Amino acid sequence: MSRYALYFAPEQDSKWWHAGCQWLGRDPETSDSIEQIRIPSVLPNVLQNLTKDARRYGFHATLKAPFRLAPGHQVEDLEMALRAFCRRQQATEVPSPQLEWMGDFLAIRPVGDTSLLNQLAMQCVSQFDHLRAALKPEELARRQQQQLSARQLRLLQHWGYPYTAEEYRFHMTITDSLNNTDSVDAMLKAAGRHFDIGEPLVIRSIALFHEAHPGENLRLLRRYPFGD
Can you give the residue range of the structural domain that contains 54? Predict the structure, then answer.
């Protein structure tokens, strides 16, 4: 069954969007494959493998994680609610975005006050939750196999995702796990150069992503602009 997600994706003409799509090798808005950058001492197939899962999801920051629609609801209901929600929002700048570790993978992270980002994400989690189908037992069991805290388990059971509320960390994933690879230093240096972007990173819309079938690439269906 298909799933939908509410993500932040930089605007199509943004340097951040072009950099993220080129790094991952895919544009989720057009579904085009893009030649990834060349990194000295990292073979192209190695770079592909080290960005495989991140590429499937596309360059984004999660606001509401992928979910199935609740019985009785259609995508039109989600689109209508999203349009109304975005009309009430104002543009928010991501403070000082820079490359950081998130556990064993690399991501673009804000540095500074993230309260507005956290607030937006929690609003997306809560205000669209009536459209979310409950997790299936196997989905819940798979999540529970992760090393989650007691609080994260409660969030998982309530919202269908463990990294919400105070557990939320705004980030834009650019690699899979870099454990057990000899390419860490080269990846760090290349990513640092590639994402050294002087342009502000501003949230001006929410992007609706769609996963047609389990395991398929997620596609950016449409951006819903703020205040429009």
Answer: 3-112+172-225
Tell me the per-residue pLDDT of 102-117, one tens digit each, with 9 for 90 and over.
999 999 999 999 999 9
pLDDT tens across 77-90, in order? 999 999 999 999 99
Q: Can you give the pTM of this predicted structure?
A: 0.96
Task: Report the alpha-carbon distance of residue 188 to residue 100 in Å, rounded.
Answer: 9
CATH number for position 213: 3.90.1140
Residue 85 maps to a domain: yes
- Quote the CA–CA distance of 78 and 40 in Å, as a whole number: 44
Domain count, the chain: 1
